[in-house]
Amino acid sequence: SMVDSTTKDFNASSFYEYLREGKFMGVRCVDCGQLAVEARAICQSCHSTEIVWVEFSGKGQLATFTCISIVPQSMAEKGYGRDNPYCSGIVMLDEGPRISARILNVDTLNPQGIKIGMKMQLQLEDLSEGTPVLAFSPE
Question: Which pTM was predicted?
């Protein structure tokens, strides 16, 4: 994974800025090697402040998921609901960290076809709408 040499602040807004540029960035602690998707200026593991940006591959596996049919208004406006549930899940990235994300391109009306361990690929959704939605699709 490439280390990024730029000096964006280690926070969520930088994370989303990178996503808009098509880069899925996280942080690595120089001292202990801990990787994290949540960009924070302090290592959650050893509390070092020696943090660098790293680019994740965007590949992983589905660790857990749920199909949601009782939806908030914002999702209803996008056409989701009882007849069109959406899927949310946790993806374990190939690099190790887990991340919560929307799962796209799966049959939410037949969730038995969605398998734990299936290979996933990052798919950025809604890049136009300000804050990108982190989403993955089966590879």
Answer: 0.87
